[in-house]
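Subgroup meeting minutes
Present: P.N., E.W., G.H.
Scribe: E.W.

1. P.N. recapped why we're keeping a running log of single-chain structure predictions: easier to compare across weeks, and new members can see raw inputs and outputs side by side.
2. G.H. added today's entry (567 aa).
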Amino acid sequence: MSQRLNNTRRILLAVAAATATACLSTPAFAQSGSPPVNGIEQSARAAWQPVRDLSRGAAEPSDASGQIRLVDHQAAASSTHQPAQRSQSQTAQPQAGQLRPVSHAHAASSVLSEPILMDDSVPMDGQVMLEPMQQYHGGPVSMGGSYGCDDMGCDGACGASMGGCDGMGCTSGSCSNGDPMCGEYRDCDSVRPCLTLCWPQDGWFSAEYLMWWQDGMSLPPLASTGRLSSRDPLANGSILYGGNDVITDNLNGGRIDFGFWFDECHTWGIGAGGFGLDRSTSSFAGGSQNDPLVRPIITVLPSSDPNMDELSEAVALVNYSQVDHTGTLNIDVDSQLSGWNIYLRHFRIAEQGCTHAGPCSCPTRWCSRSEHRLGFRSVELDEGIAIDSNVMVAGAGPGDGPLTFALQESFRTRNQFNGIDFGWHHSRSIGYWNFDLGIQLGVGNIKQSVQIAGSTVINGTSPALNGGLLALNSNIGNYERNEFAVLPEFNAKMGYQLTDHLRATFGYTFLYMSNVVRPGDQIERIIDQSQVPNANAPTPTGMFPRFAFDNTDYWAQGLNFGLNYRW
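Output recorded in log:
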């Protein structure tokens, strides 16, 4: 009996040994043909996650198609039969750092039918992956951050949806407070009264103080101490007033400009403005303190040749005590420049980017905007010269009373330009600073007007006689004509943004006007004494002084200080 039990035990031990030998001899990675340690290392490399690209924002789901999956080939071998029961240790979740085996039934189609993909961009052990940089005009700048230009940052956000900064115009029409609009400000919360058919009313208003200089007015010699020649008596006199340019000091004035945009994208707008300089004056007052005081003239004297007259340097006495002439001479000169315009402005193109500015070379956003302008312009230059002299001459004899002569003469000119105005305007913003350049060209008609008047009152009796000394019958009158003229203007301005709405500005302006008449050029010192009222000429006729339009040009330039408000 004991022998049978021993034989049974031997048979069971042999069967168990054979079964164990068969299980240990089954390959773990039949398809790969590689040792188990190599397969584990390859799977670990494929499952290793690279450094995430922070510029891509939120984490993206990984693609599992390129990862190696471990397959339970024992389960695969028996997949055609009824699946075997798994033990509790086989169904437990893998711990951290372990490889997770995948059933062949779930992965056979993807693992066996698709090749193993390895992405070249995925770094392996020891490799360093750099974050991407975005290239702008001012050099590479890391994404993110907020730098100037209404705090939009160096991220290129001001695109087609933010006002047409790509030069293609606005497409979305959306509104967001503080959008830089390539230097233009948009305020969605501003009060918009329905003044323009209820269109969007983003607009602007600027006021400037002008400190300008102008092309001085040229005057002939109007007051002196004697003849302006070597002819006696009163030879080689010195000029007291005239013979040079006057009104050359700075002129004070003001300029305003205002308007509104038709659309939210600030593509089309309409504006108007005006400027004016204070009436500037220059004067001379002479009398007994200037002895002698005369008015230098050139007279026409008959000569031996009836077809030719002789010109001679002469004087009209005002105050000369040696010959009992007592008198005063007052000369007043004035000039005033003003103008206005109305125009359409149209957005043309804009650019933006980042640069490094300031002493610390901080990354700063810049944006530029160019536009065309077309409108109408009117500019007027109004000038004049007034000469008043009062002379008292002692009587010729003991019983003769004194004679008095009161002369009043006026030379006035007006130039009225009206024409089409073409303009180009460019603005560039860097942080809180703004730089503007503007060129305008006015082309049109200038109306020239000259008014010459003169009168003399003798001994205070009326009526006054026609004519004075330089304004006589031969040139007194009102003269007008129209001429073609051009009026270019250049503006350069620098501004600093105090708030989102308010900007302080400082700039320079140059204005030029062709084909103008000025009063000093309309005075002719050559006179025919027969026309002078106190000459007692029987027929006061003659050719001198003559009148002829004498054209010249004009310029004005200066500094501008102002404030610009936009909404």
